[in-house]
Amino acid sequence: MEDVARLAGVGRGTVSRVVNGQGSVSPATVARVKKAIAQLDFRPSHAGRVLTNGYSQLIGVYIPVPYGTFYTPILHTINTQLRAAGLQMMVAFGVDGGDMRRQAIEGLDFLSARGCDGLIAMTNQLHEEDLAGLGVMYGRLVVLNDRFDCISEQCFTVDHMEGGRIAARALLELKHRQFAIIGGPSSSADNRERIAGFKDELEQAGIATATLWVAETDFSSEGGFAAASKLLQSGYPFTALFCANDETAAGALSCLQEAGIAIPAAVSVLGYDDTETASYLAPPLTSVHVPWPEVTVSCVNQLINLCYGTHHRVQREFPLSITHRASLAEARGT
């Protein structure tokens, strides 16, 4: 930086203001400094910046798995929002299977130890005592798709119970009375909530749910295919299938059609999340629309505000709805 200042004929502080984009510098001086930077092939030291202002401009993101139609768009949204604020992200992943809670704790510890200014946790496996173990990062953590009373202002999710009710109402309006459910892991609170909401709405409509056919999967297409296969083998009567996410629904659709079952003439299939993939399935999948881009942007904005004292807009309410496509029809014989 001293070499750049000498060549440009300015002080080191001026070079710092140009490099960091902070403070007032005349256009002519900025041009001289940038010319000197180019001539010297100067690259600002990341470690030096941390020592100078105490910030790394890095945000750590933990997600359970590095693939899928759910996590990838959310990561893209996070990256876009951070880059617009002049920040970068560092990502830690979990692995399939094993102790998901332990993986989340270790992932957040890894990111914290590498100097991230703040953390985004996209997991619902953490407990409140795990948050306390984060130390100073406790106040610079935001949680996506889960909620904790102890840091409620740092949590961003939707009402998954209401999402389940919306799904049930969509099928009830089409006069369905025989239902099956392919859910996700029972350890996931959001999965439990959406299935509980679905069942509650059925009970309100006078449909007993104690003997409802319900399968637990890992939220994957493979899991959806395997569960749908077991459903067909069981002989359980159903005209409507609710899948607790779109990837599970994609696998179930494939299995049902492979078995010669017409969708939606014989069976209606309803997904959840309304991911981009839902539009390109055959038939296109009707799904509960969760506004994940809006949820994610507010989550990131809140973290930036916490870390850097900014005042980015933060939304708290995220209404759910149904995106109607071709996978639903009235129940047979109605």
What order do the helices and strands follow?
A: HHHHEHEHEHEEHEHEHEHEEHE
The percent range for helix content is: 40-55%
- CATH superfamily annotation of the largest domain: Response regulator
Q: What is the total domain count?
A: 3
Tell me what the structure shows.
There is one protein chain. The longest helix has 17 residues, at 292-308. The chain is 43% helix and 14% strand. The protein is α/β, with parallel strands linked by helices and 334 residues long. Helix 5 (71-84) crosses helix 12 (292-308) and helix 10 (221-234) crosses helix 11 (246-258). The protein has helices at residues 2-8, 12-20, 27-40, 46-53, 71-84, 100-113, 128-132, 160-172, 189-204, 221-234, 246-258, 292-308; strands spanning 58-63, 88-93, 118-121, 141-144, 155-156, 179-183, 213-216, 240-243, 268-273, 286-289, 321-323. The strands form two sheets. It has a six-stranded mixed β-sheet, with helices on both faces. A five-stranded parallel β-sheet has the order 2-1-3-4-5. The model has no long low-confidence stretch (mean pLDDT 92). It is elongated and about 85 Å long. The protein has three domains: 2-44, 434 Repressor (Amino-terminal Domain); 54-157, Response regulator (Rossmann fold), CATH 3.40.50; 160-291, Response regulator (Rossmann fold), CATH 3.40.50.2300. The protein starts with a helix and ends in an 11-residue tail after the last strand.
Describe the secondary-structure layout.
Blueprint lengths: L1 H7 L3 H9 L6 H14 L5 H8 L4 E6 L7 H14 L3 E6 L6 H14 L4 E4 L6 H5 L8 E4 L10 E2 L3 H13 L6 E5 L5 H16 L8 E4 L4 H14 L5 E4 L2 H13 L9 E6 L12 E4 L2 H17 L12 E3 L11
Parallel strand pairs: 1-2, 1-3, 3-4, 4-5, 6-7, 6-8, 8-9, 9-10
Antiparallel strand pairs: 10-11
Helix pairs in contact: 1-3, 5-12, 8-9, 10-11
